[in-house]
């Protein structure tokens, strides 16, 4: 897929923002700042999903990661009140980190080469901008469908991907029960009984 | 992209000056939305200013006082005076505050609240700015940003009251987001779309308001919405008697008013979504017989209907604030996790079951994007909703939570640990 015109501008905007804030996230001293930069990265990647016409994934990405997971991150950071790490910037995990990132980079390059199938560096003449998309906007009186990929996700979740979906929900259930079990001591249980 | 911009009304594209200088496409998809956005922001911000006055007046009436009556006739210019006062006040930033986040936090809160205004169907046809396919999801996603503004503001102030308020509101808003989202799913089964304008159109086609099919869902949504906007009786994040002012203790002047605007705007959005999803949006039975659908007058009337329904819900917000005492914190959490979330799950389950049964008996038919319901189907669906869903959920949850202490107002045996203390 070759990006043209406004699409390309938006893509590069989101991509650059995502990478930049990912770097900021790692280098930030304060844990809360890190969490904020992580949020920006996630929002930028939600923008990329929008560009791929996966609005449902984009919406859920923001709803779950920003509204749920990262709010809890910040909640925990505030609760334990982590102070800025000034003295120990580098620790002894450099070796492991470099090995892991080496393999990660290898994987990314392999996938890039595989999906682009050779014409990664060849130039293709840009496509003409798509005007008809704007003109085809629907008449207001006729109601249109849920976006196709929302339907597709729903169908896939309950047909092809039903087993992983159920396993994931079971894992979450176990986690919830475990958390409740850890939070309530036996003494407390006895009192309430 | 699946973002559908709605074209401008005919009279707008025929305005003499605009028609001569601009391309019709530019007029439809650039100038008209900008006009809409400008108009909407102006109206909404003015409305928010007057909501503060309305709240003070209503509270005064409820407490048999007069309320603000000095500035202008009947105190009608009070919001203006308040605005000027807030603008002139000194902008304080605490010395040990995290300056960057302190400045950004109110902006996040306000932007999150105002962005959602773009997809709300304010009226029929051209009265909506955009009708995106995942409108409801978009609003839920964007409004979950609002929590961030509050938490970051509380943390960045470097004050213990602000931090406590922020912690409380984080826990509260994360808890109540769950039943709020789940309560909407029941209504989605009837409207079969996530686009907000289409939801209204589907309700218009069925000639019904979803609240009749979904009384439990509406109730859960309304309660969670009140908790989500930190309003009384769930205003623990800013409980004056405990936390001074909660997360915005250290904020002054215009930054404080940004938080204030965000709170009122999110109230407006919560009621607007409740109206759209449950109360039929701009649809009023019989309106299309009086006026020609699609005409300018019809659109204006639909905007009026929508505004009226929203204002009624906002009045309920104020009314509840001055009628109910504040919840205790454990009661608040218990209400979310032991009542609201199970009730919303039960609502989904029962609604789906009822729909399947109705389909088996041929009372409902799926026709593309719409449901078509026979007369017996209406009676069946509304009857089951009120006779089965609500009482059944109530009874089951009451049984499960019967031993819970938090809402038990009867005299109960003190806990063993308290008893031991009393004896010693």
Structure, explained:
The complex is a heterodimer of chains A (193) and B (424). The radius of gyration of chain A is 23 Å and the shape is extended. Chain A contains eight helices and no strands. With 193 residues, chain A is mainly α. In chain B, the strands form two sheets. Chain B has a two-stranded antiparallel ribbon with strand order 1-2. Chain B has a two-stranded antiparallel ribbon with strand order 3-4. In chain B, helix 3 (24-62) crosses helix 13 (253-277), helix 5 (99-115) runs parallel beside helix 13 (253-277) and helix 8 runs parallel beside helix 16 (329-360). With 424 residues, chain B is mainly α. Chain B folds into two domains: 7-85, no CATH class; 89-327, no CATH class. Chain B has 18 helices and four strands. Chain B has helices spanning 10-13, 16-21, 24-62, 78-88, 99-115, 135-143, 145-156, 160-191, 196-206, 210-213, 215-228, 240-243, 253-277, 287-290, 296-323, 329-360, 375-400, 416-423; strands spanning 3-5, 130-132, 364-367, 370-373. Chains A and B meet through helix 2, helix 3 and helix 5 of A and helix 6, helix 7, helix 8 and helix 9 of B.
Structural class of chain A: mainly alpha
Main sheet specs of chain A: none
Please report the number of helical segments of chain A: 8
Percent in helix of chain B: 55-70%
How many domain modules of chain B? 2
Which value, in Å, is the CA radius of gyration of chain B?
A: 24 Å
Strand elements of chain A, count: 0
Instruction: Provide the β-strand percentage band of chain A.
Output: under 5%
Instruction: Supply the helix-strand structural class of chain B.
Output: mainly alpha
Order of helices and strands of chain B: EHHHHHEHHHHHHHHHHHEEHH
Oligomer: heterodimer
How many E strands of chain B?
4
Radius of gyration of chain A: 23 Å
* Topology pattern of chain A, helix = H, strand = E: HHHHHHHH
Proportion of residues in helical segments of chain A: over 70%
* Count of discrete alpha- or pi-helical segments spanning 4 or more residues of chain B: 18
Strand content of chain B: under 5%
Q: Provide the low-confidence segments of chain A as ranges.
A: 120-146
Average pLDDT for all residues of chain B: 81
Shape of chain A: extended
Bulk shape of chain B: globular
């Amino acid at each position: 897929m070759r990006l043209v015109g406004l699409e390309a501008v938006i893509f590069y905007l989101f991509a650059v923002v995502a990478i930049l804030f990912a770097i900021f996230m790692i280098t930030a001293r304060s844990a809360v700042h890190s969490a904020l930069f992580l949020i920006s990265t996630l929002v930028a990647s939600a923008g990329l999903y929008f560009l791929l016409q996966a609005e449902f994934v984009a919406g859920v990405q923001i709803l779950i990661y920003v509204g749920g997971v990262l709010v809890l991150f910040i909640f925990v950071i505030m609760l334990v009140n982590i102070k800025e790490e000034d003295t120990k910037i580098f620790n002894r995990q450099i070796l492991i980190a470099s090995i892991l990132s080496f393999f990660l980079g290898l994987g990314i390059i392999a996938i890039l080469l595989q999906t682009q199938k050779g014409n990664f560096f060849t130039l293709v003449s840009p496509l003409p901008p798509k005007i008809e998309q704007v003109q085809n906007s629907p008449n207001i009186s006729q109601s249109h469908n849920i976006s196709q990929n929302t339907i597709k996700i729903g169908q896939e979740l309950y047909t092809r991907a039903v087993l992983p979906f159920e396993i994931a929900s079971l894992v979450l259930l176990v986690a919830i029960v475990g958390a409740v079990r850890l939070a309530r001591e036996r003494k407390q249980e006895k009192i309430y009984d | 992209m699946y973002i559908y911009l709605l074209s401008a009304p005919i009279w707008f594209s025929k305005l003499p000056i605009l028609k001569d200088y601009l391309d019709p496409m530019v007029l439809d998809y650039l100038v008209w939305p900008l006009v809409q956005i400008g108009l909407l922001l102006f109206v909404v911000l003015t409305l928010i200013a007057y909501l503060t006055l309305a709240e003070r007046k209503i509270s005064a009436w409820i407490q048999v006082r007069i309320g603000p009556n000095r500035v202008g006739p009947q105190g009608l210019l009070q919001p203006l005076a308040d605005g000027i006062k807030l603008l002139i006040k000194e902008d304080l930033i605490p010395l040990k505050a995290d300056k960057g986040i302190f400045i950004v936090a109110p902006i996040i809160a306000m932007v999150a609240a105002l962005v959602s205004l773009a997809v709300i169907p304010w009226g029929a046809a051209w009265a909506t700015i955009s009708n995106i396919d995942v409108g409801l999801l978009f609003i839920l996603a964007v409004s979950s940003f609002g929590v961030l503004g509050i938490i970051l503001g509380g943390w960045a102030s470097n004050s213990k009251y602000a931090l406590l308020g922020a912690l409380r509101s984080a826990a509260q808003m994360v808890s109540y987001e769950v039943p709020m989202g789940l309560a909407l799913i029941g209504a989605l089964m009837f409207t079969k779309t996530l686009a907000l304008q289409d939801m209204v159109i589907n309700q218009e086609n069925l000639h019904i308001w979803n609240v009749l099919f979904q009384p439990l869902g509406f109730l859960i949504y309304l309660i969670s919405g009140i908790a989500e906007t930190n309003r009384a009786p769930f205003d623990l994040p800013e409980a004056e008697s405990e936390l001074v002012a909660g997360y915005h203790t250290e904020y002054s002047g215009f930054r404080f008013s940004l938080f204030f605007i965000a709170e009122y705007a999110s109230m407006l959005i919560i009621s607007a979504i409740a109206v759209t999803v449950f109360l039929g949006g701009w649809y009023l039975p019989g309106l299309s017989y009086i006026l020609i659908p699609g005409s300018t007058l019809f659109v204006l009337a639909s905007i009026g209907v929508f505004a009226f329904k929203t204002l009624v819900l906002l009045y309920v917000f104020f009314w509840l604030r001055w009628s109910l005492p504040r919840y205790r914190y454990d009661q608040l959490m218990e209400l979310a996790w032991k009542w609201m979330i199970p009730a919303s799950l039960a609502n989904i389950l029962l609604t789906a079951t009822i729909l399947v049964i109705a389909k088996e008996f041929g009372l409902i038919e799926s026709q593309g994007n719409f449901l078509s319901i026979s007369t017996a189907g209406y009676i069946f669906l509304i009857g089951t909703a009120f006779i089965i869903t609500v009482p059944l959920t109530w009874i089951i949850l009451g049984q499960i939570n019967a031993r819970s202490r938090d809402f038990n107002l009867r005299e109960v045996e003190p806990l063993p640990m308290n008893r031991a203390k009393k004896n010693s």
